[in-house]
Design brief:
With 69 residues, the protein is α+β, with helices and mostly antiparallel strands. The protein is 12% helix and 26% strand.
Length: 69
């Protein structure tokens, strides 16, 4: 599964290590810890931060038993 967030702000996002009292700066750190892959695509205006979660297919459920079976 791929998730993208785009903004029009300048600059490149960077993983930060905020102190316990900080009110921001944890987003990309969480992404780096939880996602299987992530990156940044630059645009003429702004950027897109993307992340990928690898998911596996769920196995087929067992067939339901009916009174006739």
């Amino acid at each position: 599964m791929r998730l993208e967030v785009r903004d029009s702000g300048p600059g490149q996002p960077a993983v930060q290590r905020p102190d316990d009292e900080a009110c921001s700066g944890r987003g990309l750190h969480l992404v780096s810890e939880l996602a299987d892959d992530f990156g940044v695509d630059d645009h003429v205006v702004g950027k897109t931060v993307w992340l990928v979660f690898k998911i596996s297919s769920a196995p087929d459920p067992a067939p339901l038993k009916t009174p006739e079976s």
